[in-house]
Amino acid sequence: MTIRHSLLAKRPQSDQTLLPMLIRQRDCELHELNRRRLVQNELSPPKFRPMLSLISMSSDIVFKSCSQTPLVMHVRVVSGTGGGPDKTILNSPRFLDPLGYRCVCVYLRDPGDDGFSVIAERAAEKKASLEAVDDFGIKDVGIVSRLRELVDRYQPTIWHGHDYKSNLLGLMLRRRHPMQLVTTVHGWVQKTWKTPLYYFVDRQCLPRYDRVICVSQDLYDDCLRSGVAATNLSLIDNAIALDDYAASNDPAEAKQQLGFSTNTTLVVGVGRLSNEKGFDLLIRSIANLIDSGADVSLAIAGDGAEHDSLQQLIRSTGHQDRIRLLGFVADPRTVYRAADLYALSSRREGLPNVVLEAMAMGVPVLATKVAGMPTLISDDVNGRLVEPDDMDELQQALAALIADPSARQRFGEAGRQTVEERFSFEGRMKKMVDVYRSLDS
Q1: 440 class by beta-carbon count within 10 Å (0-12 exposed, 13-18 middle, 19+ buried)
Q2: How much is the pLDDT for 250?
Q3: Which part of the chain is the Glycosyl transferase family domain (predicted)?
Q4: How deeply is 226 buried, as exposed, middle or buried, from its count of CB atoms within 10 A (0-12, 13-18, 19+)?
């Protein structure tokens, strides 16, 4: 699907007048519905209309002319349908606005990546202003001028990066446009041969930022070792909007909808299918339990580079009917509702949103002791913790919880309470605003 946005590297002649026309026709009192009607029905070519309602292409006009309150520009490189950081980014505008900060979400993406339409849909659902910027990869020097145009129009007070590339670009653009630089460190994973280069670049950028926010203690410590001053570091855990998550009233029906028996104990995992997630260990553990006679099944939601190898692993177990890869699931709540147990088998991780989401929905959690997990889960109090990359311990913990429904219920109730008390998104945004305001002083 072609997505229309305001910063095309090569804009068709018929579309070049779109922004000037919008500028002439809009003022800050124009209702959002009228804007969409004008854009979709009067200004845009038919092929662009299906997605235009999903992306706010002219909200910069409102931001620039209607208010002098500070503007935060979130910037992130994304591929496919995104991940955990995008839940935080797209939720931020509706929570920051009452606290006195306007917000625009800027995504750098490959123009041929159809997965971005999912992010656009989520932005529309959250009423987040979204800008899509064409990014043709590491050799695309034109990305600087395209972002410069965006910065000139929005005049952000704060540039908030979320990865090595947005951090580097923020430093480059501040030479022309004075703005405070903030970044959130979500974690680093080994994915390609380029990753060490990206890691090195980020290490050069972080000490030059005005504030660096880490989502777990180990990332905080890592940044300290990399030369970021402690006075410029903040630790703010991930969080979720609790109103979006409620426990399932009918898990049996949810299991049926996923194609599983209502009587089976269903273990679920959600995430990118990559090595650091440890789904291979989870699949082997569940397969061994099935072989031993346990009535257990496994559903994994997500997509990624390891899909084919994991599917082959499942076939080798002979349990394709009870161990399934669900592929990308737009709304993972449909998976949590069916779950008797959530399993995080990661080898490396920050503080994953998926675990917070599962706990918020009352799903008991078994997780590896990676990064921020021990700050979230107290072993045998509101969940279970096992050592990462230890399949024997993982399998034993799974077996114990599958056989003990009362423990699962206890962990589920305590987990929900933990999220309510410590990981609400509103609380996180108040901490974020404290960081933003500290920059003024």
Answers
A1: exposed
A2: 84
A3: 253-417
A4: middle
Q: Where are the alpha helices (DSSP H) in 270-345?
A: 279-291, 307-317, 333-336
For residue range 414-439, list pLDDT tens digits in order. Answer: 999 999 999 999 999 999 999 999 99
Give the Cα separation of 198 and 209 in Å (integer). 17
Return the domain boundaries, the chain. 13-239+426-440, 242-422
The alpha carbon of 191 is separated from its chain's Cα centroid by a whole number of angstroms, namely: 17
**Run of H or E including 327:** strand 323-327
Report the Cα 200 to chain-centroid distance in Å. 23
Strand partners, 160: 74, 182
Kindly state the tokens that stand for 40: 């979709």
In terms of Cα–Cα distance, which of 190, 252, 241 is closest to 420?
241
Using the predicted structure, report yes or no on whether residue 40 has a pLDDT greater than 90: no
The model's pTM? 0.77
Give the phi and the psi of residue 298 in degrees, each rounded to 5.
-135, 130
Q: Is the pLDDT of residue 48 over 80?
A: no
* 214-240 pLDDT tens trace: 998 889 999 999 999 999 999 999 999
Identify whether the C-beta of residue 368 lies closer than 8 Å to the C-beta of residue 425. Answer: no
Closest CA to 438 of 186, 208, 232, 179: 232
Please check whether residue 330 is in contact with residue 118, taking contact to mean a CB–CB distance below 8 angstroms. Answer: yes
What does CATH list as the number for 242-422? 3.40.50.2000
Tell me: domain 13-239+426-440, CATH 3.40.640.10, correct?
Answer: no
- Tell me whether domains 13-239+426-440 and 242-422 share a fold: yes
Task: Convert 162-183 to b/e letters by CB count within 10 Å (16 or more is b).
Answer: bbbbbbbbbeebbeeeebbbbb
